[in-house]
């Protein structure tokens, strides 16, 4: 009887432990290439996902400290899943990928690369993520019931100088640099300048004609 009770308790404990460790059937989470780096080295953050349904896209946002890390680019190793260029905010990776045909989501969905800027203790955080499918109406829609697994990864960066990663990205790189502000924010678009120039020419011509008419009237 004692043996049966012990076996029953072990099976019950194992059954309670397994759901805690297992990923959800529809899940997205991040991992990293390491937890400690030197200055100037490349940090690779991998976006992973599992979905029982084929997807036609994904989107995610990763928050980071721009004083410690600089976002370089992102890419997906899944054939046909191409990056969409989006405006980037300082300290936030905003990436979207789409495919014209359904693809399987089971493992690595995308890689995001950063370079370390100096000695610091920092985190990268998966703020949001979604898997995209084509709904019954034929429009893109987020797949319901997707959970976020591991969302925050801590890093330690030393002052020692390192070297950048040379391994190529699997897929077409999607640039993630923040667009610099224009050095002359008050400058006008070229089209507007041309229109104003034409208006100016007509004004000068009109003034010239008006002066000739006034001179003719005075001499009459």
Written account of the structure:
The chain has 220 residues and is α+β, with helices and mostly antiparallel strands. It contains two helices and 13 strands, in the order αβββββββββββββα. It has helices at 2-21, 190-219; strands at residues 27-32, 36-39, 42-50, 55-63, 69-75, 82-84, 92-103, 106-116, 120-134, 140-142, 147-148, 152-161, 174-175. The termini are far apart. Residues 1-23 and 180-188 have low confidence and may be disordered.
Distance between the termini: 132 Å
Largest sheet: 7 strands, mixed
Mean pLDDT over all positions: 79
Helix content: 10-25%
What sort of overall outline do the alpha carbons produce when their principal axes are compared? globular
Uncertain stretches of 5 or more adjacent residues: 1-23, 180-188
User: What is the count of DSSP helices, taking H or I runs of 4+ residues?
Assistant: 2
Q: How many strands?
A: 13
- Indicate the proportion of strand residues: 35-45%
User: Measured on Cα atoms, how large is the radius of gyration?
Assistant: 29 Å
Order of helices and strands: HEEEEEEEEEEEEEH
Structural class: alpha+beta
């Amino acid at each position: 009887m004692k043996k049966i009770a012990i076996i029953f308790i072990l099976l019950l404990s194992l059954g309670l432990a397994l759901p805690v460790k297992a990923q959800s059937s529809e899940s997205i989470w991040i991992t990293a290439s390491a937890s400690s780096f030197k200055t100037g080295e490349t940090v690779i953050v991998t976006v992973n996902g599992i979905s029982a349904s084929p997807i036609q896209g994904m989107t995610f946002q990763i928050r980071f400290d721009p004083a410690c890390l600089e976002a370089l680019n992102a890419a997906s190793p899944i054939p046909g899943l191409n990056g969409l260029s989006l405006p980037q905010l300082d300290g936030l990776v905003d990436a979207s990928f789409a495919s014209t045909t359904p693809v399987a989501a089971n493992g690595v969905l995308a890689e995001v690369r950063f370079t370390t800027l100096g000695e610091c203790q920092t985190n990268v955080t998966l703020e949001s993520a979604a898997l995209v499918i084509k709904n019954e109406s034929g429009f893109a829609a987020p797949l319901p019931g997707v959970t976020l697994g591991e969302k925050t990864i801590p890093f330690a960066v030393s002052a020692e100088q390192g070297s950048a990663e040379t391994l190529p990205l699997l897929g077409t790189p999607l640039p993630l640099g923040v667009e610099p502000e224009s050095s002359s924010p008050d400058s006008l678009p070229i089209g507007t300048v041309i229109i104003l120039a034409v208006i100016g020419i007509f004004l000068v011509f009109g003034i010239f004609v008006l002066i000739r008419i006034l001179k003719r009237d005075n001499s009459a």
